């Protein structure tokens, strides 16, 4: 088979047909003015005739850019939580839309830090990504801080603390917790429970805010550990309610996902909501308005948060050391409190 009949798969193949170097072909197809117009037109014509398209990934790698943003979810606090969690899927959807709009692809990883101490370092050093978005601080705050000291293009979804070094986007969780407790107490609740693991920084801040208000208003609030995993969430809520539901009349769920499971269990136990048990979630996921009764919750603008994460990351890719973005929460009153 002659050179003209062979399939053209690489720049080297096209260069052989054109009678020029591979470098000349590469520059010509990139529109480089160093290649004279006649040669450039000849190479472009041959590329069209042979339906040749340059390998975009290889081109990006030569420029030391991959066009890929890494998105990583560390689950150090709850290894059984899954990416199919409604909050993760909502945020990931918005991030994918934002990144695609900016011309980037997304590479997703879920990691268990106890099984991989270098979970963040190795991802960054892999050469496969231009920057990284971390969804949740989990119990990995210190590790993220260490990486932030030497790696600029990283933005984290989570809770902002005064003096932290990594760039974070997220709601004012403590303020949201205060709003939730105030609503429960104003609605008549006198004995509160906070359902959620207070280990992760976001949940801890939500509980701290609720406790601020409960202490100020002389109302008790008890933290109850509930894990976010398909096998555990419903079981742990059912156990708690079976043992303690007569001791409380208001529940602040650390997330809407926990609130949904709680509402299902209260309905199964024929506990009327909000007459006998008042319930507030946190997130305001799309399904929150569709439960029966509709869920009263603390709204955090996940869409705006995703936009902010991508915007800050792109600015950091341009060597700008950005500030964190703290989003204002908002109480959405519906039917459960």
Automatic annotation (TrEMBL):
A molecular function (GO) held by this record is: transcription cis-regulatory region binding
Q: Which InterPro entries match?
A: HTH_LacI, LacI/GalR-like_sensor, Lambda_DNA-bd_dom_sf, Peripla_BP_I
Keywords for the protein's UniProt record, in alphabetical order? DNA-binding, Transcription, Transcription regulation
Q: Pfam family of this protein, just one?
A: Peripla_BP_3
Outline the extent of the HTH lacI-type domain: 9-63
Q: What is this protein called?
A: LacI family DNA-binding transcriptional regulator
- Show the taxonomic lineage: Bacteria, Pseudomonadati, Pseudomonadota, Alphaproteobacteria, Sphingomonadales
